Automatic annotation (TrEMBL):
Name of the molecule in the record: MFS general substrate transporter
UniProt cross-references to InterPro entries, sorted A to Z: FLVCR1-2_SLC49-like, MFS, MFS_trans_sf
Source lineage: Eukaryota, Fungi, Dikarya, Basidiomycota, Agaricomycotina
Keyword Transmembrane helix: yes
Protein localization: Membrane
Region (Disordered): 1-25
Transmembrane segment boundaries: 123-143, 163-183, 190-207, 219-237, 257-279, 285-303, 351-372, 384-407, 419-437, 443-464, 476-496, 512-529
Membrane topology per record: Multi-pass membrane protein
Amino acid sequence: MCAKTLNLKSRMPASATAGPANRNGLDRMATKKRLSYLNPATLQGSVEELSFLSSLSMATRSPSEPGLDKSKTRSNLSQLVTVDRIVEKKKSEPALVSLSGDEHVMDAQEQSTPVYKLYRRRWLGLISMVVLNVVAAMNWIWFSAIATSTAGAFDISLSQVNWLGQVVNLIYLPMALSIPSLIKIFGIRNTCFGAAVSLLLASWMRYAGASKALSSEGSYAFLIVGQIFAGFAQPVFQVLGPKFSETWFDLKSRTTATMIIAVSNPIGSALGQLIPPFISTPRASLLVLAVTTTAAIGTVAFIQEAPPTPPTYAGSRPSPPIMDTISAFLGRHQSSDPEAPSFTKTERIDFLILVMGFGTVVGAISGFSILTNQIAPVGYSEETAGFVGAALLLMGLLAGIITSPLFDRVLTHHLARSLHILLPPLAACWIGLIFAIQPNNPVPIYVVAGLIGVLGFILLPVSLELGCEVTRNAEVSSSIMWMSGNLWTLVFVLAADSLRDRAEPHGLRKELILIATVVSVATSFIFFLKGHQTRRQIDMEKSREANNIISL
């Protein structure tokens, strides 16, 4: 018998340690003492101590004892069964180690209290996620601002150039849904490493297509295959953003971390529109992109799997499988397990509203970024088209940097109310952009595009975080919401190809009418959003419990 058990035995009354012959008349007192020592509400005692009490329980229940009055001990036996269940529960819990290194037995409630901690290395991982998101977005949108010159250099049509961006969105859809499963199988670090390798292959595959020795069909084949590899990589770094924030950051910085990762992809989009027009030829620009991507993907080494100690309760819990979450959302997955995913009717409606609103806003911004070069028929150069897209994205970035700390510390519990206030003006801005794009009218275009960026980028991390709150599953909610955004991007750009009227000088007007209509209809449902922040409430309760016990 170990020292801890002996120590317990010496502290217990004689009735609790008496032999079978003496226990007949003392079982009631033994039971009372045991239950007073092992209070189920506090779960005092170590695993060894609880096992010792369980062995006493077995002896007390022995039917072979002479003179045992079963009628008098029936209530005691039911209490003993409760004690034994507590013993089994304690045995199934992981061993608890004293931080001070001493051998004294601590109170089990204090031992089982989670200790949450932040690590400085989280910032290295955050920087790596930002850099990889930037280069992934550059690989996606590189041909947008130089669409006309790319079509001329490779002897392909403008629709073929658009498909260089669209194929990324097409690959994005199945990849986004597979990412939660990839994380479960390979983990965050290995999934990011695989995406980085895919980016490396994409960049040099496109540069191989820039060879003048190839025919236009051969060059286009290399370009499209390179974009397919880019399509495998981009959703990984976008979808992982909320999960990475949940794993490494606490309640006071989680929304900010999500914002930084979320807007880093649009930063890459801005750079992908600003840089190519200033490079001499589209073929030369592909070499610049390949070298930049190669230099950037080395930062993937700084992404770690998870901290030794989680920052919050949510950060310590593994997410349920994506199919279980989807089944629960559809009402097909019923389980008595409290850890199993479950949704109320309000949460289902909230998530549908978020997916619809987030998807149309992201699709509108991304689609407009791809189509900005088509304002050239109105009388603007490719450089001006690039500046319009950059104004939208960079103004949005500035707004996101300023407001995200406010949502972490001031507007913590008002994410849904923020969407109620900001989405209607965003829809109005898209309507205003229809009338702003006119010949020789650059200032209103810059202003309206900037306002769209400001409102859209404020809502971007707020919507992602609220989706995590409603579903309590960061990677699944993020993958579905980002998939919705790319689906709408695909719809808007394909519709633009169909609506383009080459005889009409205002080539983007019909596309903008479509975008403004869809965004206005989708965002009108935002007023039905309740947005209860369930995940944050659970985290705060667990944190308060830990602080209360530590203060004792």
